[in-house]
Design goal:
By secondary structure, this protein is of the alpha/beta class. It contains nine helices and 14 strands. The protein has an eight-stranded parallel beta barrel with strand order 2-3-4-5-8-9-10-11, surrounded by eight helices. It has a two-stranded parallel sheet with strand order 1-14.
C-alpha cells in the first residue's frame, strides 16, 4: 500500500541501543534529553519518535519505571507526537525486560519479526531471539492494550511471522511493516536499492511500509522509499553522520533534511494526527 497522495510519515529514531555519547555526544540518553529531541523532531516534521531507554550511565534499560519517566517527559514537552517504544532493547536485556516498555502504555511499539544471529561487534555469534510464540504473545498484549505494532523485518524470511500474526488476527489492518536494511551486526540484508525493491515487492497485502537504512545508505534509501510511496525513518539510532566526516548535530537535523527532500518530491510531512488516522493508531 502507498501512503495517501501527497503525504509522507516521518519517524525519528532518537537513540537506539548501541550509539553512545562516546560515538556522538549529541545522542539523547536521559529522559529530559529525549524529550527535547522529541520536541525538536516534531517541530521539524516528524510524526513519530522511536525511543530506547537508557539508565543513568547510558546503558540500555528495560524497566517499566524508566519508560514511564520518558513518556511523561516527552508528553510534558510535546503532547502531540506519537511515541513508539522499542521492544528490541539491548544485548544486555532479557526478553522480559525488552517487552516491559509495553506496560508504560505507548501508542506504538516496535515488534521484531524473527530471530537473527548477530554478525559483528562484541556480541557476534549471539542470537537475537524472537521466537514465533513470543511474537504472538507480544502482539496479543499490544492488541489488548491498543498499542499499534511496527513490525520490523530485516529480511524477507521475517514475512513468515508477519503473515502468521495476520492469519491469527493478532494485528489490525492496516498493517505497518518497517524494512530494516543494512544493519549488519543484526544480520539484516544489505541496504541497496535492489533489496529495498525486493522487500517491497514481497510485502503482504494491506501493509504500509517504512524504510529504515543505516549509515551512508540512510539518505538515498529513505529518498527512494518516499518515491515508492512509503514512510521513512531517520535518526541517530541508524546514522550518526550528516555527511562524510561530519557528525550530525542532533536528530532534528536529519528530520529537517528529509522534510526538504520530501517537499522537493511534492510530499508534505503528515502531522501526528494524520499519521494516527492513516496507520490506525489510537491516541492516548
Amino acid at each position: 500500500m502507498k501512503l495517501p497522495s501527497g503525504k509522507v510519515i516521518i519517524t525519528a529514531s532518537l537513540n537506539g541501543a548501541f550509539v553512545t555519547k562516546a560515538i556522538n555526544p549529541n545522542v539523547p540518553e536521559q529522559p529530559d534529553e529525549i524529550a527535547r529531541a522529541s520536541r525538536q523532531c516534531h517541530d521539524a516534521g516528524a510524526a513519530i519518535v522511536h525511543i530506547h531507554a537508557r539508565d543513568e550511565q547510558g546503558t540500555p534499560c528495560g524497566t517499566r519505571e524508566k519508560f514511564e519517566e520518558i513518556l511523561a517527559a516527552v508528553r510534558a514537552r510535546c503532547s502531540d507526537v506519537i511515541v513508539q517504544f522499542s521492544t528490541g532493547g539491548g544485548t544486555n536485556l532479557t526478553i522480559e525486560e525488552r517487552v516491559s516498555c509495553l506496560d508504560a502504555d505507548p501508542e506504538m511499539a516496535s515488534l521484531n519479526m524473527g530471530t537473527l544471529m548477530r554478525q559483528s561487534g562484541p556480541n557476534a555469534g549471539e542470537p537475537f531471539v524472537n521466537m514465533s510464540a513470543d511474537i504472538e504473545a507480544w502482539a496479543a498484549k499490544m492488541q489488548a492494550m491498543r498499542i499499534k505494532p511496527e513490525m520490523e523485518c530485516y529480511s524477507q524470511s521475517m514475512y513468515r511471522d508477519v503473515r502468521n500474526l495476520i492469519a491469527k488476527g493478532l494485528a489490525e489492518p492496516p498493517y505497518y511493516v518497517n524494512l530494516v536494511l543494512g544493519m549488519k551486526h543484526q544480520g539484516a540484508v544489505e541496504a541497496t536499492p535492489e533489496t529495498l525493491v525486493s522487500m517491497h515487492q514481497s510485502l503482504p497485502e494491506d501493509c504500509y511500509f517504512n524504510t529504515t537504512a543505516t549509515g551512508a545508505a540512510q539518505l538515498p534509501l529513505t529518498t527512494m522509499g518516499m518515491v515508492m510511496g512509503g514512510a521513512v525513518r531517520v535518526g541517530m539510532e541508524d546514522n550518526v553522520y550528516y555527511a562524510k566526516g561530519e557528525p550530525v548535530s542532533g536528530n532534528a537535523q536529519l528530520v529537517e533534511r528529509t522534510v526538504r527532500i520530501a517537499r522537493e518530491l511534492m510530499l508534505e510531512p503528515a502531522t501526528p494526527d494524520e499519521a494516527r488516522t492513516i496507520l490506525g493508531v489510537v491516541k492516548k
